[in-house]
Amino acid sequence: MHQTIATFSAVLLLTGLGLVTAQGNGGPGGGAGMMGRTAGNNTNPLCGTTANAPSVNHTIQGGVRYFQSNGCPPTNWTDHNYPAPNGMTYGQARSYNFPVIVNQTPVLQANISDALYVGISNPVKGPIGITLTGVALYSAVDALNRDAIIYEGRTFDTCGGHSTPDPVNTYHYHSMPGDSSTISHNGTRNSNFTYCPAMQSWLLPVNTTNNHSALFGVFVDGVPIYGPLGDGGKLPTDLDACNGHVDASHSFYHYHATSDYPYLVDCLRGCINSTLSYIQGATIPACKPAAQQYNYSSLDAEITARLEHVGVINGTMVNGTVVNGTMVLL
Ligand SMILES: *[C@@H]1O[C@H](CO)[C@@H](O)[C@H](O)[C@H]1NC(C)=O
Ligand SMILES: *[C@@H]1O[C@H](CO)[C@@H](O)[C@H](O)[C@H]1NC(C)=O
Ligand SMILES: *[C@@H]1O[C@H](CO)[C@@H](O)[C@H](O)[C@H]1NC(C)=O
Ligand SMILES: *[C@@H]1O[C@H](CO)[C@@H](O)[C@H](O)[C@H]1NC(C)=O
Ligand SMILES: *[C@@H]1O[C@H](CO)[C@@H](O)[C@H](O)[C@H]1NC(C)=O
Ligand SMILES: *[C@@H]1O[C@H](CO)[C@@H](O)[C@H](O)[C@H]1NC(C)=O
Ligand SMILES: *[C@@H]1O[C@H](CO)[C@@H](O)[C@H](O)[C@H]1NC(C)=O
Ligand SMILES: *[C@@H]1O[C@H](CO)[C@@H](O)[C@H](O)[C@H]1NC(C)=O
Ligand SMILES: *[C@@H]1O[C@H](CO)[C@@H](O)[C@H](O)[C@H]1NC(C)=O
Ligand SMILES: *[C@@H]1O[C@H](CO)[C@@H](O)[C@H](O)[C@H]1NC(C)=O
Ligand SMILES: *[C@@H]1O[C@H](CO)[C@@H](O)[C@H](O)[C@H]1NC(C)=O
Ligand SMILES: *[C@@H]1O[C@H](CO)[C@@H](O)[C@H](O)[C@H]1NC(C)=O
């Protein structure tokens, strides 16, 4: 038993070293005085364990969408079911400066083979996206490039996340946020998700009857991700290799979380603007955009609506979009 735990700690120790960060001045909220990730022992403040632990700002300026977060989950991250090995500050979630900066309008690659693969076929570690509550989204791989749910899933807390041990302490999801029993899916594709009570209202659509799942995050290609259900509240049957598709109620390319691999995304279909966000260890594919692109004009309002749904925004509404808003989760 102890041997097994030690193996897990070694694996987890390596998973959090990638980061998404602004190049240059970091955009709104990214100036001097922000907490950075530190090498060695992380002395950043521990995250709170209640719903108001996150601080997330969402801003749109000049065609660029900024998320700026302290990386903390809106739930009790100490509520995990794995023991701390002796001498390790294991599984502590600490705040850090977490910006995700993308072009406001995603631009899709013409050919899916030009997408950035992030899963087992081309492992990318560290943050590749952000939830609307400001938590990092990771790919499906662990430090040894294996299925992170199979090999680490039992370390997830009851809201489906975990944090990398000291020194990085990045709280993150490899699969559907809030899923209180990720491993219960046993590698099958189904809609039997049980969300932790603290996150239910943030993850479910306002009207849950036969409805498409709600938007819960955005990846570094600017493409949003929704919960597991597509049109009519049914599981999508036409997801591509990245885990994305277009459906009737959301007529632009978007991702869905799934109960089986890749859980979130296996590749990022949109072009990644590496001058805005950096993904450690990834070679960003050149952008060879499709001639026909999707109309994402409703996305700002949808993100704003979901942000308002999960918390409180004090910002200025410009054409239906919150600009310079600060979200404080209730
Ligand atoms: C972290 O702190 C522990 C306990 O103070 C110490 O033993 C260890 O050497 C430190 N590690 C680093 C990388 O500074
Ligand atoms: C969000 O913006 C507010 C007001 O500008 C600022 O005080 C806060 O530090 C920002 N939060 C983050 C995580 O950047
Ligand atoms: C968080 O979870 C831990 C472990 O279950 C518990 O001891 C603690 O009281 C919880 N904290 C809050 C604020 O609910
Ligand atoms: C997409 O890329 C693959 C691999 O490079 C190539 O074989 C295929 O012909 C391309 N498809 C199109 C439609 O360009
Ligand atoms: C899922 O896996 C667990 C652990 O191996 C097992 O106990 C359980 O019976 C499985 N459930 C299903 C529905 O296969
Ligand atoms: C759904 O998942 C829960 C655990 O999250 C499990 O107890 C239940 O048996 C599952 N139901 C089905 C039909 O698989
Ligand atoms: C759910 O259904 C209602 C009514 O059809 C619709 O207005 C709403 O946008 C749907 N989606 C969500 C996420 O609530
Ligand atoms: C909820 O959404 C479903 C599917 O979109 C729709 O049929 C139903 O009328 C909606 N209910 C309400 C109260 O809006
Ligand atoms: C990246 O974003 C910047 C800022 O919006 C923009 O000027 C630049 O054209 C973008 N580059 C690509 C390749 O889209
Ligand atoms: C948001 O606005 C309300 C009402 O004006 C105010 O009480 C609250 O302090 C503001 N919160 C932030 C984080 O600015
Ligand atoms: C708001 O929308 C109008 C009409 O589409 C446009 O002319 C105007 O420039 C927009 N304002 C801003 C600040 O984006
Ligand atoms: C948002 O903040 C920027 C930079 O501080 C400022 O130039 C801009 O006017 C603000 N926009 C609104 C709508 O408040």
Automatic annotation (TrEMBL):
It comes from the Eukaryota. Residues 1-22 form the signal peptide. The keyword Repressor does not apply. Pfam families: YHYH. Residues 125-229 form the YHYH domain. Keywords: Signal. PANTHER family: UNCHARACTERIZED PROTEIN YBCL-RELATED (PTHR30289), YHYH DOMAIN-CONTAINING PROTEIN (PTHR30289:SF8). This is YHYH domain-containing protein.
